[in-house]
Amino acid sequence: MEAPWAINNHNTHRAKLRFVRVRWWRDGAPPPKGYATRSPYTCKELTLDMETSKDKKDSDAFDVVRLVDDLLARATDCGASDIHFEPTADEMQIRFRLDGVLNTVETLPSLLRENVVSRLKVLGGLLTYRNDIPQEGRLASNGDGTVVDRRLAVFPTIHGQRAVVRLFYDDPALADLNELGFRDKVLANLKQLIESNGGVILLTGPAGSGKSTTLAAILRHITRVTPGKSIVTLEDPVERHIRGVTQVQITPQGTMTFPTALRSLLRQDPEVLMIGEIRDAETARIAVEAGLTGHLLLSTLHSGTPSGALLRLLEMGVEPYQVTSSVLAVVNQRLLRKLCEHCRRKDSATGQWQAAGCEKCFGTGYHGRALVAEMLLMQPSLREAILAKSDANTLKRMLEEQGHTPIAVEGCRLVEQGITTQAELDRVSA
Ligand SMILES: [Zn+2]
Questions:
Q1: Residues 117, 266: one domain?
Q2: What is the Å distance from ligand 1's center to 339 Cα?
């Protein structure tokens, strides 16, 4: 699609490298608000103070079309999962999320804020003349097939519109349960449990801990190992398409809510059900009932610890006996950024590996991520403790006595091996 707005740059004071003139025009279209009109073009010359910009050498950087294309390409090149265009009082920050953490890669002068977002809106097929409402859309594929989906969300703020582009990559390694990085014992238990003909398996961890990637890999694994099974997912939103699985988009604000969809689906008797997240008491109750009546139910629950997830179900009003008889296991997981192999260095005083930062890792000191996970299996002692309505501390003590390895211990192992840092472990444990 051709950009409706183009910018003509004239570096009029190249000698001083101080001012750049940006001229806007578009054939036969009304001018944007506040711009003067000069027939046959709507036209306005802006003077841009280069001192306010980081990029003082190349005035072409202010060609918004090229600028946006360049940012999108750079984000893809370094494997960013999303790009944030954040307007502030006097500039626009461009941040890439690399391995789960936002890094500022560019600061644009405020003059370009709206133009950058307008360009994104054009690419995403959004209403360019509406700046006062949230809008969501999709950008066309990047051409070489590495990014399977690019989603755009635009949101009005007090400093103008904020835009976020989420990039979805086709990563074969993340599709395979065996390749996610679970330790052998956890993986073997998980594989055995997902062949069950009933029960609930829960995944916990904060946002960005890879729960939905694990769920998708589990579903793919089930389609491969037991091809004849009927598998349905209820998701908000559907993030990745999985072959052989019926995926349903939930609209929490509309009529297709988790409880409504779940109740209706159970009458169709699917063998495996995946619910994106258990957020409310009603969903929790129906989910547990589904697990008790011959469906394998997979879902996520917001909790910091696996025993916390079980207590959360109780708080939501699920009866203790229903929790103990339905839940098969809880997997608690985190993603830790791996130290960049090209620039990590050992602190001579402490002997610990530290992040430095180089070209390869975009100056972050980290590259790629490692999974750490703990798995809590529903065992007789745990069952008794829950039926006795034990509190979080009692459960924790009991699990420690039984030799359960908490996720922090797993993380420490990675720190000792120089795969990640203590700072990174603290970040995801917080
Ligand atoms: Zn590096």
A1: no
A2: 8
- String of DSSP letters for 48-85: EEGGGSS--S-GGGG-HHHHHHHHHHHHHHTT-SEEEE
Q: How far is the CA of 269 from the centre of ligand 1 (A)?
A: 51
Between the CA of 157 and the centroid of ligand 1 the distance, in Å, is 35
Query: Does this model's pTM top 0.70?
Result: yes
Span from the CA of 218 to the centroid of ligand 1 (angstroms): 32
Q: Which of 144, 169, 194 is the C-terminal boundary of a domain? A: 169
Confirm if 70 and 56 have CB atoms less than 8 A apart.
no
Same domain for 158 and 192, yes or no, is no
How far, in Å, from the CA of 50 to the mean position of ligand 1? 31
297 by DSSP, 3-state: which? Answer: strand
Please tell me whether residues 215 and 160 are part of one structural domain: no
Residue 71 and residue 44 in contact, taking contact as beta carbons nearer than 8 Å: no
End of a domain among 151, 169, 187?
A: 169
Q: Are residues 251 and 395 in the same domain?
A: yes
Compute the distance from residue 368 Cα to the ligand 1 centre, in Å: 11
Q: Is the peptide bond before 40 cis (omega within 30 degrees of 0)?
A: yes
State in Å: Cα 70 to ligand 1 middle: 22
Per-residue pLDDT of the chain (430 residues; tens, 9 = 90+): 332 233 333 333 222 223 333 333 334 444 444 333 322 222 333 334 444 444 434 444 457 787 788 788 888 888 889 999 999 988 888 898 988 888 887 777 777 888 899 999 999 999 999 999 999 999 987 667 778 889 999 999 999 999 999 998 877 778 899 999 999 999 999 999 999 999 999 999 998 899 999 999 999 999 999 998 999 999 988 888 888 999 999 988 888 999 999 999 888 989 999 999 999 999 999 999 999 999 999 999 999 899 999 999 999 999 999 999 999 999 999 999 999 999 999 999 988 999 988 877 877 889 889 999 999 999 999 999 999 999 999 999 999 898 898 899 989 999 999 999 999 999 888 7
Query: Is 1 domain-assigned?
Result: no
The Å distance, Cα 26 to ligand 1 centre, comes to: 44
